[in-house]
């Protein structure tokens, strides 16, 4: 027997305006221009230029009941307005929804990095070099496939068998592994040295062989990489010295030569014209002991609602409302006008949120922004700033994860100013960044032939008044990309 039951549930749903604001808030300044260009292309009701006066807009829009003041939605962003919210699925396609979830819930590591714009011509350079050597049509196709398989750091990590399969399925060209190996040997002679290697050992060997030197140190270096690579990676120098039958000084010269080689040949090449720059979202300057915060002008674009679209709406409103075609046109125009207004308001709200967040960070870390002394950075977490600006922690996180600030002492990502607190003997909290700096200082000054273990580093930090466990020392050391003591050992 079936039963009918009633149940009440409380759900939070984001309005379209809030979704748009979230998306705009998290993108860095370098990508904002592109996002605005996309909106200008898809929405003819949006134009570049100064926004019209409120009075003019009221006259042109007629302030119909269907055109609400969307600024109110943004003002209530953190509390999620209960009025006129819609199901996200009704508002956008499944692909759009996936993109929204991806950027808000799982902002990946690469996106968290500072915006770097680069123009890389490595592939073009390699293809140009491929054209300089005499190859058959078949070999040239194999060569292009190999170049296309090169990773960003300059390695080919796909097995030769897989490349043969790619040629067979993708280009209907059946080749043997030996044929691919022959062309690979030619590609590996291209610039930069070490390109198209299949692992680090082969990459270093290619660079050493390219030197074509006949010195003892070069021959020892090749022997070390060719026969004792595992011992070299583990820094078992005494084992290598005995097997080579050389003195300490000779071994040191060979090791020095190896360490000067490039482990990532794809990262820098003489033939490549690369332009890289960091674009700060804020500029903080100190004048007469007073800090001034300026928002990057690219964060404040001049946008307005199209006057022609407003006039068009007015014209259609006065026409025959019963005509189906006219009714559809009016609906389309209203949707575009509303979307344009939403976008302009979202941009304004983005500016306000960025400034409020940055002002709170500067006030919290005021001592650092005056003189740039890292030891003056206070422990600060997302919750501290969220409470100060009366916003949700997720909002502060979206601002901090992808933004940077230019100071009198350099450019810093906003995440740089957030750190945990470490207790000291005096009972005060010290920033984990301060502890990391001292840890790096201890490691830099340690005896190179006998590096300090994590236990010894823990004791050294305790002598300086920092109560810190050995596992925390190991965690901070790994965050600083510093290897364990055994791998730091030098001759």
Offer a few descriptive terms.
491 residues; alpha+beta; Arc Repressor Mutant, subunit A; 8 strands; 7% strand; extended
Question: What features would you describe in this structure?
Answer:
This protein has 491 residues and is α+β, with helices and mostly antiparallel strands. Among the domains are: 60 residues, no CATH class; 68 residues, Orthogonal Bundle (Arc Repressor Mutant, subunit A), CATH 1.10.10.60. The protein is built from 25 helices and eight strands. The strands form three sheets. It has a four-stranded mixed β-sheet. Strands 1-4 form a two-stranded antiparallel ribbon. A hairpin with a 5-residue loop joins strand 7 and strand 8. The radius of gyration is 31 Å and the shape is extended. About 16% of the residues have low confidence.
Name the CATH architecture of the domain at 421-488: Orthogonal Bundle
**Describe the biggest sheet?**
4 strands, mixed
Gyration radius, to the nearest Å? 31 Å
User: How do the strands line up in the largest sheet?
Assistant: 3-2-5-6
Number of distinct helices = 25
Share in helix: 40-55%
What percentage of the residues does DSSP assign to strands (E)? Answer: 5-15%
User: Structural class from helices and strands?
Assistant: alpha+beta
Describe the global form: extended
- pLDDT under 50 segments (min length 5)? 53-120, 269-277
The CATH first-level class of the domain at 421-488 comes to: Mainly Alpha
CATH superfamily of the domain at 421-488: Homeodomain-like
Give the termini separation. Answer: 84 Å
Give the CATH topology of the domain at 421-488. Answer: Arc Repressor Mutant, subunit A
Mean of all residue-level pLDDT scores? 76
The beta-strand count equals 8
